[in-house]
Amino acid sequence: MYYIPGKMAEKPTKDVKHKRTKKKLNLTFIVKSMTSQERQQNRETLELAEKNRYGREQELKEEKTVIRLPKHPEKTISDKTRDYFTQCRA
């Protein structure tokens, strides 16, 4: 949690309800690139960072689909029809 001095003193700005992880990639980006070689290096660094991010997103999506299970079995059309008619009779 982060705290801001002043009016919001000692009040949390946001409740984090999940665990966040950080991964250091050790990629450097030249802010004021003057030469074409530095610009090329920046492009390659950016491509590598995007590939790493895409790969990590795919891993997280696979983990999500594996972990999640339906809470209740889905009703079939015959079950829904039966429920509808029992409600109409009542």
TrEMBL record:
This is Uncharacterized protein. Residues 1-21 are annotated as: Disordered.
